[in-house]
Amino acid sequence: MKHIISIRDFTREELDGLLDHARRIEQGGYAGNELAGRILALLFFEPSTRTRISFETAMARLGGERISLDCVEASSIVKGESLADTIRVISGYADAIVLRHPKEGAARLAAEFASVPVINAGDGAGQHPSQTLLDLYTIREHLPLRGIEIGLLGDLRYGRTVHSLTYALSLYDVMVHAIAPEGLKLPQNVIHEMKEREMEVHEWSDISKIIGDLDVLYVTRIQRERFPDAASYYSVASSYRVTPELLAGGKPHLIVLHPLPRLDEIDPRVDSLPHARYFEQARNAVPVRMALLKEVMG
Ligand code: NCD
Considering the domain boundaries, does residue 132 fall inside one? Predict the structure, then answer.
């Protein structure tokens, strides 16, 4: 039984294999019926648009069925049922569980009580491994994951997509620039681990100093829901913004990614520039999650 909890659980060969598989799925026009008769449970204890709908689309394209618990207020969670019990019960109904939860470590805990594979679709500020797969997939469509410089901009403290992506990038030969305002910097333990893995990481607070060196710019939203109070959020809100003027100083082939949703951190005028790849990135969720579901349930 294969759980997908952290991107750390993958080797580089496994990541490459999955992404190659996703590519074949996309090239083959998403054909397949391999999961007919199988059931995927979606348990989302936090809001989601792309992750949830793309998992549903992936399962539908593979001929499978979905069941879901989306309105936590209408479930026995409000009666005080534990996550462990919920997972034990849903394991009896479905062939795999996709879980999003506000608590870091929730997916790892769920995997201990599940008798079917658990896929972590985001655990608090922890990890979001399937997002990382589609982030890598999108980069690979444009650039080799070798010898390039990748800027991570925004809420690097609470952003789980950044935490997963940073670990994955350390398996490749790339340089990372962590660009964040004070208070949103990449946690020191992540930086330490990256350096131990011999990845070059540089920290910046001003994007304009480094924009000209980047091949990829990965922008993130400030994770307001993770802040202890409103004042600390407002002290950093709207503290960075990607504009056409900023990108004019970038390389012609620079690609801009964002896991979405976006608030004000990317100027809508960027959308029509060739740099903007975030909607393509969101679309790539389908072949990537199809490959992942086949791997986990096939
Ligand atoms: C991200 C998440 O939930 O971590 N969204 C996503 O899955 N595409 C990013 C975010 O919410 O900012």
Answer: no
Selected catalytic residue, list 3, 51, 185, 258: 51
What is the pTM (predicted TM-score) of this model? 0.97
**Mean pLDDT, rounded, of the chain:** 96
51 in active site: yes
Which pLDDT tens digit goes with each residue over 33-55?
A: 999 999 999 999 999 999 999 99
Q: The dihedral of CA 194, 2, 65, 76: what is its sign? A: negative
Nearest CA among 45, 140, 47, 172 for reference residue 101: 45
Bridge partners, 149 (sequence order): 175
pLDDT tens digits, one per residue of 111-135: 999 999 999 999 999 999 999 999 9
Task: Let me know whether 64 and 187 are in one domain.
Answer: no
Burial annotation 250-288 (CB, 10 A radius, 16+ → b, else e): beeebbbbbbbebeebbbeebeeeebbbbeebbebbbbb
> Ligand 1: residues within 6 Å at CB?
50-51, 122, 128, 131, 160-161, 220-221, 259-260
Same domain for 22 and 113, yes or no, is yes
Would residue 136 count as lying in a domain? no
* Per-residue pLDDT at 57: 97
The question of whether 21 is a catalytic residue gets the answer: no
Same domain, 49 and 163: no
Between the CA of 161 and the centroid of ligand 1 the distance, in Å, is: 7
Q: How many domains does the chain have?
A: 2
Q: Are 149 and 174 in contact (CB under 8 A)?
A: yes
- Is the same domain home to 96 and 155? no
Is 137 part of a structural domain of the chain?
A: no
* Catalytic option among 38, 50, 88, 283: 50
Do 185 and 272 lie in one domain? The reply is yes
Indicate whether 43 and 159 sit together in one domain: no
* pLDDT for the residue numbered 265: 98
Q: What residue type is assigned to position 144 of the chain?
A: P
The range of the structural domain enclosing residue 240 comes to 143-276
pLDDT in the model for residue 69: 85
